[in-house]
Amino acid sequence: MRIAFATDLGYIPPNVKAQLKGVDLLLLESNHDLEMLRDGPYPWSVKQRVLSRVGHLSNEAAAAFLRRVRRAGSLCDLAHLSQSNNLPELARVTAERALNGRASLLANRLLLAAQHEALPPIYF
């Protein structure tokens, strides 16, 4: 079984994409909603850093990755959600749309990590 953690990326470069393609369990950052970040409380300099290539993946960036490279039978856990610039349901819905019906008990599974509680045990 291959497990990967992908957070604090800003973007997913080709070498990281290649390493993440075959994993069975991926903990993937889905840090912010672009509109919430734009309208949120952070100073402009922090917003620019979050949006940069050394910042964080947005819900849309995480979804784009899932759309392109997730394979059947794998599990993805969305994590590192911003408390100020994201909502768990926004992250979930964006990722589910990217999986476009590929999320099921027999294929891809999607979990959402909460800020203040542990995930339940994960079984394959």
Describe this structure in words.
By secondary structure, this protein is an alpha/beta fold. The chain contains five helices and four strands; from the N terminus they run E-H-E-H-H-H-E-H-E. A four-stranded parallel sheet has the order 1-2-3-4, covered by helices on one side. Helix 5 links the parallel strand 3 and strand 4. Helix 4 runs parallel beside helix 5. The chain is globular, with a radius of gyration of 14 Å. The model has no long low-confidence stretch (mean pLDDT 88).
Which key phrases capture this entry?
four-stranded parallel beta sheet, alpha/beta, 124 residues, 15% strand, single chain
Secondary structure blueprint with pairings:
Layout: E1 3-6, H1 14-20, E2 25-29, H2 34-39, H3 44-51, H4 59-69, E3 75-79, H5 88-99, E4 109-112
Parallel strand pairs: 1-2, 2-3, 3-4
Helix pairs in contact: 4-5
Tell me the total number of β-strands: 4
Helix content: 25-40%
* Spatial strand arrangement across the major sheet: 1-2-3-4
Radius of gyration: 14 Å
Compute the separation of the termini in Å: 10 Å
Strand content: 5-15%
The largest sheet is:
4 strands, parallel
The rough form would be described as globular
Coarse structural class: alpha/beta
The stretches of 5 or more residues where confidence is low (pLDDT under 50) are: none
SS summary, helix count: 5
Give the SSE order as H and E letters. Answer: EHEHHHEHE
Mean pLDDT across all amino acids: 88
